[in-house]
Structures are given as structure tokens and as C-alpha cells.
Write a structure and sequence with these properties.
Elements: E1 8-11, E2 14-22, E3 25-32, E4 37-41, E5 46-60, E6 63-67, E7 72-75, E8 81-96
Antiparallel strand pairs: 1-2, 2-3, 3-8, 4-8, 5-6, 5-7, 5-8
InterPro entries: Bacilysin_H2HPP_isomerase, Cupin_2, KdgF, RmlC-like_jellyroll, RmlC_Cupin_sf
Protein name: Cupin domain-containing protein
Pfam family, one: Cupin_2
Length: 103
């Protein structure tokens, strides 16, 4: 249950809250203020991102794409990626396996 997991500030204007987890899968909500950034990074987990609200410019291994409500994308394992929030909103991310560093 989400109330089990705290809301954590990750970067300026960005918060993260684990919604559910299992050793093989984790669901996480990220909330962004306009102009906030998810810094470029990479991890071994496969990530699926669903845009619940807002507008974001994603960079995945150098390819850029603007996404809005209802859009989704998959980020392969070890792909260097990040985003800039163009209009405040929320991303729902799924990771496999789970991100133990988020617990």
C-alpha cells in the first residue's frame, strides 16, 4: 500500500513514492514541478514509464522525445536516460527487477 512508503525528495522539484514492490517488480510514482529534471543516469533494471499527467522531454541514449498524458515508453537495461519536466506532472514507473535502492 502507498501509505507504507514515504514520499522522498530526489532532485529539486522532484519527489518519489514507491506504490508497490516485489523482488521481481516495483511500481513508483514520480512527481515533477515544471522545469525539474530527472538527471541522466543508467541502471540494470528495465523501466516502463507511463505519463499520468504533465509534459516531459525524455532523452534515452541520446534520442529525445516529448511525451504527455497517456503516453508510455520502455527504457532498456543500462540505457542512459533522463527527463526535463515541461509542464508539472506525474510519471508512473515500473522497474524489473525492483529497485532495492528505493527501499
Amino acid at each position: 500500500m502507498p501509505e507504507e512508503f514515504p514520499i522522498v525528495a530526489t532532485d529539486p522539484g522532484v519527489t518519489r513514492q514507491v506504490l508497490s514492490d516485489h523482488p521481481e517488480l516495483m511500481v513508483v510514482a514520480f512527481r515533477f514541478e515544471t522545469g525539474a529534471e530527472g538527471q541522466l543516469h543508467a541502471h540494470p533494471h528495465v523501466q516502463s514509464t507511463y505519463v499520468r499527467s504533465g509534459e516531459f522531454r525524455f532523452s534515452i541514449d541520446g534520442d529525445e522525445r516529448v511525451v504527455g498524458p497517456g503516453d508510455s515508453l520502455v527504457i532498456p537495461s543500462n540505457a542512459r536516460h533522463g527527463c526535463v519536466c515541461l509542464a508539472s506532472g506525474e510519471l508512473i514507473d515500473c522497474f524489473t527487477p525492483r529497485r532495492d535502492d528505493f527501499l
